[in-house]
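FORM 7B: Structural annotation worksheet

SECTION A. Query
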Amino acid sequence: MSTNKLLLKFALRYPFLIIATVVLGFSGALFNGISTALIVPLLLGFLGQDTGLLTKGPAALQAVMRFFERFPGDTKFFAMIGAVILAIVLKNTAMYFTAIVSNYLSRSLVNGMRLEGVKLLLRFDLDYFSKQKIGNIINTVNNEVGRTANAVKLGISMFTTLTTVSVFIGILIMLSWKLTLAAAVLLVLMFALNQWFIRRAKQYGRILSLKSQEYSNKLLEILTGIRLIKTVSNEQFEYQKLEQCIREREQAEFASQSNYAVIAPINEISGIFTILGIVVIGRYIFIDQLQSLSTILLIYLVTLFRLLPFVGRLNEERSKFANVSPSAEITAHFLREDDKPIMQWGDRAYTPLQEGIHFEGVSFHYPGYAENTLKTVDLWIPQGKTTALVGSSGAGKSTLVDLVPRFYDPVQGRITLDGVDLRDLELRSVRQAMGVVSQDTFLFNNSIRYNIAYGLEEVSDAEIETAARRANAYDFIQNLPQGFETEIGDRGVMLSGGQRQRLAIARALLRDPDILILDEATSALDTVSERLVQDAIDELCRDRTTLVIAHRLSTIRQAHQIVVLDQGAVMEVGTHAELLQRDGHYAKLHDLQFGKKQKKFALPTNAALIRASIRASLELRTCLSYEVRARLNAMLGSLQLVTDDLVDTPEERQELIQESYESALGLLNTLSFFEDHGARLDWNGINVAKASELPNSSG
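SECTION B. Predicted structure
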């Protein structure tokens, strides 16, 4: 929408306030004009001079003076004094209530626009937030919206001031149209002089909005990245950058204020010259009847003198309006819906899944990108079963699961739940039936109880504690200072990664979702934390339709089906055993992680790495150290789980022992490999004996 349409749209939400402001403003202007017009006759009457208004004055003034002629003697002047005082009191009363109503209208506009902005933000799709700077959004909602509401307030104030000016001009025309024509020419010159400053005010307003955005973005960036800043000891650099933003913003604000401050003196000087010009012109207009019409000329000059401050105020308000108009443009763009990604809701309520989820020829690319991330995906996810998604980075795993809760919609094909197109279902009911636990767990800066129960109403303490127990989180919660009431800091900074993940799982358990999505929920955890979280995940997945993204294949061996993705396409579907037998993509991923199918435990990739290292003149010590550490970490992690008795079944214990045994054999083979081929490490440089005997990449 345009800026004017935006201002009109929100202003029309408060018609009674606007009408009251206009009526009060007009009343104040009318009483102001009346009091001004009566002051000169009143003063001349006290001095005993004949005003001549009953015979030579304008018809309107003659009518007013006839009204006061009804009063005998000095009573007439006391009546005029009372009328002037009453007009002044009514004028100031109207101005007071105008200010009250105008300020209330301004606050209502600010609140209305901010609420509208927040409401729209919650409706925008994730794609909008991925392309916008959060600092810009915060600056728009906090600062630009306030300045926009001020523009509406200024518009109403300009109308009120213009009404006052119109009343005074009407009085001036009534007194002498010739003088008014001359005054109009002088006032137009004053307006033209002010126009240059008004254009500058608009330019400064744009600069101020831009610098405010830069400052908000930089401050938010520092606050969110404070850990990294302190890690690399870059506080001084960030301080200097923020200081520069603050200085540039203050310079823009100073320039804007300086431009605004010069308007008042210019208007005052122009007003003085205007009055002097009218005096000179009036002398020539009334030269033949100056004595008899001196009262009219005096009234005219007093009225003009009272008019000029309102003309100056009108110019100042025009300058302020021009200064905040860029903010109105920013807010108007922000509140537009036609250029924002907003998900359309269906009208069919979600019902619990009975059969499954079907991807039917689904292709997808992110907005603004031409290449498809998913390419004609056909996939069946049965109800109540666990489906694991595996593949290399960038294969499309996260993109695929993001389509299920409709964070995005396919560009081709469709997703059905029990045969019903996902887009036909009511979006809120669909998402309420789903639980998502991702690698990047978000927690609010609130209590543990609040975070577990987030999004649910009327949840009992017993239900929260049960969910915490099932998520293996109850014990560590009880050890916190205030238990479930412990504040955990911004994004749960007071907790470890494993603890945060278990709270997220407890939250999902409490929601009892029909469909569960696990997006690499254990990828960033250490071995012990992963084990605890995995136990909680196993509890969470029981008898649910579950989509799991995992980079550690050991965590999804028991999945009912495993889907292998590569470059956005489904390559294989089957169980762990079936896919290993096929010796395809999954088998290769499995070999890379577990080192299977090695002849005499020789690692082809290690040999290739050694040969590449030699060609690149790298130290062999680095290769050996990396390999030894990798083998030791895997072996020690498995043994620690066994020694800490963190296994549930004898079969699982035997599997961990077997993995430790294989890691030890791999470590032994690596050391033997270097010995058998006569690799001698010269710590002052690379000195490799029998380098020609090293195996090639295939053996």
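SECTION C. Observations
The CA atoms of residues 28 and 308 lie 16 Å apart. The domain at 356-578 is CATH 3.40.50.300 (Rossmann fold).

SECTION D. Sign-off
Analyst initials: ____
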